[in-house]
Amino acid sequence: MKRMMAVFTAAVLSLVLSASFATFAAPPPAPPEAQPEMTSALEHLREAKRALESASHDKGGHRAKALSLINQAIAQVEEGIRYDNTHTSPREKKY
Question: What is the pTM of this model?
Fold first, then answer.
């Protein structure tokens, strides 16, 4: 009898804890916001990178420097997109 009461108590406690965790769990993250300008900039940067990569190498180091700067720009745009997808400005609401 005591064993059945202990099993029953454990089952009830488990259900209560499960329900409370589900109630207080964080809401699912909002879907990423469409960012057409940033996406377009990223596409243009990648296109410029491909053009520079296919250009001849004799540019006095300027081609290599431009490629380095484009890689940095690509990284910054990607970081900006990620940042915007996880932060809310004072004038907008994320659902």
Answer: 0.61
